[in-house]
Amino acid sequence: MKVTSRSFTITGALAMSAIVLAGCAAPASEPGTGGSGPEEPQFEGSLTVWVDSDRAGVLEDVAAAFEDERGVSVELITKEFGAIRDDFITQAPTGNGPDIIVGAHDWLGKLVQNGVVAPLELGDAAADFQQVAVTAMSYEGQTYGLPYSVENIALVRNVDIAPEAPATFDDLIAAGQAAVAEGAAEYPFLVGLDPAAADPYHLYPLQASFGAPVFEITADGTYDPTTLALGNEGGEAFAVKLREWGQAGILNTNISGDIAREEFVAGKSGYFLTGPWNIPAISEGGINYAIDPIPSAGGETATPFVGVQGFFISSESENQLAANEFLVNYIGTDEVQTALYEVGGRAPALLSAFEAAQSDADVAAFGAVGAEGVPMPNVPAMDVVWSDWGSTEVAIINGQGDPVELWRAMVESIQSKITG
Amino acid sequence: MTNPFNTQQGAEIGERLNPLVAGSGATDRSRAPRTVQIADGRVLPTRRRRSFPRWFADTGWRHLIGVVMLVFASFPLLYVLSASLNPTGTLVGSNELFRVIDFSNYIELFQRPQQPYAAWFLNSLVIGLVTAAGTVFLGALAAYAFSRLRFTGRRVGLLTLLLVQMFPQLLGVVAIFLLMSGIGEIFPQVGLGTQSGLILVYLGGALGVNTYLMYGFFNTIPVSIDEAAKLDGASHAQIFFGIVLRLVAPILAVVGLLSFIGTFSEFVIASIMLTDPQTQTLAVGLFQFVSQETSRNWAIFSAGAVLAAIPVMALFLYLQKYIIGGLTAGSVK
Amino acid sequence: MSNTIPGAQQPLLAPPPAQLSGPRTATRSHAQTVRGLLIKIALLGVVNAIAVFAMFILVMRESWLIFAIAAVVTVIINVIYLRPGWLPAKYLAPGVFFLAVFQIFVVGYSGYIAFTNYGDGHNSTKESAIESIIANSLTRVPDSPTYRLTVVEQFGTFGFLVTDPDGQALLGTPDQPLEEVDAEEDSTGKAVSVGGWTSLGFGDLLANQGVVIDLSVPLSDDPNDGALRTPDGSSAYVYTSDLVYDEASDSFIDTTGGEVYVDGGDGAFVNDAGRELQPGWKIDVGFENFQRAFTNDDIRGPLLSVTLWTFAFAILSVASTFVLGLFLAIVFNAPHMRGKKIYRVIMVLPYAFPGFLSALVFLGLFNQQFGFFNQVLLGGASIPWLTDPWLAKFSILFVNLWLGFPYMFLICTGALQSIPEELSEAATVDGAKPFAVFRLIKFPLLLVSVAPLLISSFAFNFNNFNLIYMLTGGGPRDIEAGVDAGATDILITLVYKVAFGEGTGRDYGLASAFAILIFLIVATVSIVSFRQTKALEELN
């Protein structure tokens, strides 16, 4: 029985300490204890932050600094990036979720729809960030997150095969096909597509150059998720072009992202529509490359989607003030934004850090293209849009049916799903 | 037990008729070369050099199938191996396998402070082995009860075990999170974020389809063995732990292996339960290398997956002697 | 002592262990009983200590329902192990305990969700929905200045001591709009303290952050001027809100247009025009989800073809993996074969790699233009493995065979060990052909122990969402048909598309309702096929 009583003591001691801890933490949120007065500042809580493993290293240093200077410990929890959004939505309402999460701006609509994210007032600091980043972190007129990076795709050109930047997409096709005819290249143009879902994200700049964004943009610069703009004349013109490019072999749904990268790195094409994430492989592969604006196919500017990453505060957090302080005054600093840029290779959202990063020619070039871009829509309805959009593009590229009719059917289907 | 035959042919038949004599492939090696003394005193090896057609008809075709299956089973995985040896490897970008052979991915795997691969490896081993042992124990207890004892609710119970695990658990993750955060408030040692808590959740699945596998095997052990022991004054616990468990060793090994593999590769629950990189398992940790489309590192991920397959294979190699030789070994000793 | 009575359920077996045949001394048996008893008492003591401790905490937390459950379970466990007899319970209790806590609860929870509107937009309680709506509707007045702030406290009341852009110090509380005061300023001109009030440092702010964040100090008596709030305790901004919550009528009033949003009974505040405020909250909806499940056109249209394919996929997957696994188990069950250990280990390989990794590799192998199958094996053919409706079905089955045969191989290898060789060998000696021996003797015996696993495997594949999702996403989809279902969609992937891909987003309530319906199908099939096997028959 000795064993029994000892294990009971251990269990008891551990659990008692848990009760004591819980007892300390809980009243902090109750107004009643406010009267205890300022004489005895006893803050026992800590900030829980969900980060992906790439970001965790940088945040460790910031967290240590925050604890030293502000007396609040920061607990970093490493989660797989893709799981953060959904886990956060399900766990925040239980009261056991984190105080802060790292995330992408296009999650925002979902987070607001589920009431799990708290507004974040950047105050005067808002002007220190790239405008597109702050806009992306806003939803229905309210700002919710602290941005840390901005990224977008651009046209990467193999200078040895294609010495000149093309002015239009038709020029690109002509030059690309000429290179193939000469035997200098195997593919006129490369972009990673999925055999089942194409890639509306990568093809969007071309579509936008026909004047067909996803949603109508309202006067205040945000999307109106109830009105699709996909289906306008520009959209249909784009659909016709998709078919043409598909038949000419400019677009090929068998070329996945991995294959496209591999073939470009092997020097088999002059043009590759991609983002900064593939630059390390391209430069390691010894390709002499340049980064150009995406040439217009439909006459208007080919604006890519801009993706913004940042940090959000939970609406259920008991430590909103500490969380706010941590984000605005610690993550929002030049140092941290630069450190995050160095670890992830994504251009910083903070202007001063972004300027400093311009010394890297690649960042500057992608940044210049992104300056033309619009944030990827962050409305919850996007989930519905992507799937129909992609499978329709596949069908058009592969020559099934009439492009315009398919496009119209897609718009109808998306519209009916959005309105439920 | 004496062998009633003394000719070579007789010995072979005897072997085949009586597994106690024949043993099995796994125990063959430990034995001294078998010889048979024939009437005139000469000693002949039992296995004569046979003609090729006979060899092929008996064993050779099995090798042929073995080689075919070897290709079938391992071919797709060569892509993974190839990617793991190429610093800029993609999983399927090219059909030129092993263009580059470079072990830097394997080295880098152990040099990332944010992704402590060695810790993951150890965690997975410990969690997998403990869960497998627990599953075998709980499952064997239940299988014994279902096989040997008659009670009301037995049929319903058996059916329930099967049906419970058929329910599509779309929301299992949410439920487990709620449950474990509740349990953690009372017993923080097994709450969210703890490996012991994760093991408990896994043990929730101990009774299930594996119990059937054991149940079926228990049924083939004659009840007369139990009864004889009972006559000798053994208690039911002594019969179970001392006799029956040893007789069913092959199936315990199979269930243990299945449970280990299942735990080793389980991702969803582990990712909810374990959040500190130092406590995470291989399945959870490795996935971080490829979870973000823009920063996928197939090369390192592949290296990690290749190494992760080793424990599974090692355990199977180790357990084979119990699986194959278990029945006879258990009853002879 | 005979154990050689032949019978279908009780096959021949070697003589029992030698130790049993010898006489056993009473003392040894007695000693073992005492030791067993001690172990039992010790274990029970540990269990009880843990249980009492848990109950103690539950009392402290006043969780009476869980306390009652814990108490009853503890008593039951003690009765089971202290009372003589009840042998089945003694053996089943540990496993059943874990099963009940970690599986039944999860199933019960999923079942319960089917009767709620849980999902995107209905994620939490009404209280937190109201809080969120209030917080989200507070917007900073455009181009309004920043007030530098010191939070002050007097007798438990918190106030704002702010410095307006002109350098004037102002003091206010939630009940008392801002008024000019004489305050002490620091070197930058920021008011830092005022007589009678205590200034809060950062530590004090943190200790009271729940209150400080909610402080709202009106600029003037006119509420339309807005109020000062602080996100960080050191600066304050002017906020106005378009939406005001009226507790008495439980409604939100839009101050700009005068529209009223009331609790419409569907878990959201809604105005006359039907516009809902986000977020809503979770409510019970009874059988509404089931009604929607039965009337959903996107399910009903392709239902027949999808159901047929689901059954075909599940049955063919089980059949192919079982046949191959069993075949290999028999082939490598040869005592004299060299190297079979290596073959066996290699064949477990597909099982030892992460499934999604293998699926991705196959995705590449099947690529129409660059894949290994077309480019290398078939010399540059252009076979649409994954994009032709029938070939995609075949490809899915092929990959599932690759993924699944090691499992069947393992369980068949294990189950074969229970079949005594002498049974079939004796028959062989009698002149029966090997295949006939297998079919008539081994196979029926084997089936008794693996049939339940085949049924379970059928159920698993019936809901094998991951494979389909990873490989084809349900496609290829006949885009012109206008139906969302693809050629390889099974019921669960179709449900996923409908419940998670339309309208407001993920609808867990509807998904759970579908899950229950699918479960009923699978359970019925399983029970019926179970009856066909001898697995449940009384033995001996």
From TrEMBL, chain A:
<keyword id="KW-0762">Sugar transport</keyword>
<dbReference type="GO" id="GO:0015768">
    <property type="term" value="P:maltose transport"/>
</dbReference>
<dbReference type="GO" id="GO:1901982">
    <property type="term" value="F:maltose binding"/>
</dbReference>
<dbReference type="InterPro" id="IPR006059">
    <property type="entry name" value="SBP"/>
</dbReference>
<protein>
    <submittedName>
        <fullName>Arabinogalactan oligomer/maltooligosaccharide transport system substrate-binding protein</fullName>
    </submittedName>
</protein>
<dbReference type="GO" id="GO:0042956">
    <property type="term" value="P:maltodextrin transmembrane transport"/>
</dbReference>
<dbReference type="InterPro" id="IPR006060">
    <property type="entry name" value="Maltose/Cyclodextrin-bd"/>
</dbReference>
<feature type="signal peptide">
    <location>
        <begin position="1"/>
        <end position="22"/>
    </location>
</feature>
<comment type="similarity">
    <text>Belongs to the bacterial solute-binding protein 1 family.</text>
</comment>
<keyword id="KW-0732">Signal</keyword>
<dbReference type="Pfam" id="PF13416">
    <property type="entry name" value="SBP_bac_8"/>
</dbReference>
<keyword id="KW-0813">Transport</keyword>
<dbReference type="GO" id="GO:0015144">
    <property type="term" value="F:carbohydrate transmembrane transporter activity"/>
</dbReference>
<dbReference type="GO" id="GO:0055052">
    <property type="term" value="C:ATP-binding cassette (ABC) transporter complex, substrate-binding subunit-containing"/>
</dbReference>
From TrEMBL, chain B:
<feature type="transmembrane region" description="Helical">
    <location>
        <begin position="199"/>
        <end position="218"/>
    </location>
</feature>
<dbReference type="GO" id="GO:0015423">
    <property type="term" value="F:ABC-type maltose transporter activity"/>
</dbReference>
<dbReference type="GO" id="GO:0042956">
    <property type="term" value="P:maltodextrin transmembrane transport"/>
</dbReference>
<dbReference type="InterPro" id="IPR035906">
    <property type="entry name" value="MetI-like_sf"/>
</dbReference>
<dbReference type="GO" id="GO:0005886">
    <property type="term" value="C:plasma membrane"/>
</dbReference>
<feature type="transmembrane region" description="Helical">
    <location>
        <begin position="298"/>
        <end position="319"/>
    </location>
</feature>
<keyword id="KW-0813">Transport</keyword>
<feature type="transmembrane region" description="Helical">
    <location>
        <begin position="60"/>
        <end position="81"/>
    </location>
</feature>
<protein>
    <submittedName>
        <fullName>Arabinogalactan oligomer/maltooligosaccharide transport system permease protein</fullName>
    </submittedName>
</protein>
<keyword id="KW-1003">Cell membrane</keyword>
<comment type="similarity">
    <text>Belongs to the binding-protein-dependent transport system permease family. MalFG subfamily.</text>
</comment>
<dbReference type="Pfam" id="PF00528">
    <property type="entry name" value="BPD_transp_1"/>
</dbReference>
<feature type="transmembrane region" description="Helical">
    <location>
        <begin position="120"/>
        <end position="146"/>
    </location>
</feature>
<keyword id="KW-0762">Sugar transport</keyword>
<keyword id="KW-1133">Transmembrane helix</keyword>
TrEMBL record, chain C:
<dbReference type="GO" id="GO:0042956">
    <property type="term" value="P:maltodextrin transmembrane transport"/>
</dbReference>
<comment type="function">
    <text>Part of the ABC transporter complex MalEFGK involved in maltose/maltodextrin import. Probably responsible for the translocation of the substrate across the membrane.</text>
</comment>
<feature type="transmembrane region" description="Helical">
    <location>
        <begin position="308"/>
        <end position="333"/>
    </location>
</feature>
<dbReference type="InterPro" id="IPR032550">
    <property type="entry name" value="TM_PBP2_N"/>
</dbReference>
<feature type="transmembrane region" description="Helical">
    <location>
        <begin position="91"/>
        <end position="115"/>
    </location>
</feature>
<protein>
    <recommendedName>
        <fullName>Maltose/maltodextrin transport system permease protein</fullName>
    </recommendedName>
</protein>
<dbReference type="GO" id="GO:1990060">
    <property type="term" value="C:maltose transport complex"/>
</dbReference>
<comment type="similarity">
    <text>Belongs to the binding-protein-dependent transport system permease family. MalFG subfamily.</text>
</comment>
<feature type="transmembrane region" description="Helical">
    <location>
        <begin position="345"/>
        <end position="370"/>
    </location>
</feature>
<keyword id="KW-1133">Transmembrane helix</keyword>
<feature type="transmembrane region" description="Helical">
    <location>
        <begin position="64"/>
        <end position="82"/>
    </location>
</feature>
<feature type="transmembrane region" description="Helical">
    <location>
        <begin position="390"/>
        <end position="410"/>
    </location>
</feature>
<feature type="domain" description="ABC transmembrane type-1">
    <location>
        <begin position="307"/>
        <end position="529"/>
    </location>
</feature>
<dbReference type="Pfam" id="PF16296">
    <property type="entry name" value="TM_PBP2_N"/>
</dbReference>
<keyword id="KW-0812">Transmembrane</keyword>
